[in-house]
Amino acid sequence: MLIARSIALFVLAALLEIGGAWLVWQGVREHRGLLWIGAGVIALGLYGFVATLQPDADFGRILAAYGGVFVAGSLAWGMVADGFRPDRWDVAGALICLAGVAVIMYAPRDT
Q1: Is residue 6 within 8 Å of 101, Cβ to Cβ?
Q2: What is the pLDDT confidence band of residue 111, given thresholds at 50, 70 and 90?
Q3: Which residue ranges run through the membrane (predicted)?
């Protein structure tokens, strides 16, 4: 159950961070305006809060593992939001990152 909660929190954090960054990008680079930028800043702030809800208490471990989720999530977001077509190397890299997430977060530990 803790693993499922952790994965759900990682997915939510990725949606907020990647979505927030995308909104800021759209506001600035695509000239959509301050409302887009403001919504992005709020989403980015919520991402920071969601990251604190992980069951593990080690900040470094959480952020290191989240990096892999961010990589895979960014490629997925690009596919959905911008029509990005990842090549086999993008997919292979994302899978390697997600394997790293699994090792960092969910490998058995001597406590």
Answers
A1: no
A2: low
A3: 33-50, 62-79, 91-108
Q: Average of pLDDT values for 55-71? A: 94
Q: Up-side HSE of residue 26: CA atoms within 13 Å toward CB? A: 17
Are the C-beta atoms of residues 71 and 101 closer than 8 Å to each other? no
d(CA 90, CA 56) in angstroms, rounded, equals: 29
Q: How confident is the model at residue 23 (pLDDT cuts 50, 70, 90)?
A: very high
DSSP line for 1-66: -HHHHHHHHHHHHHHHHHHHHHHHHHHHHS---HHHHHHHHHHHHHHHHHHTT-S---HHHHHHHH
Alpha carbons within 13 angstroms on the beta-carbon side of residue 64 total 13
Does this model's pTM top 0.70?
yes
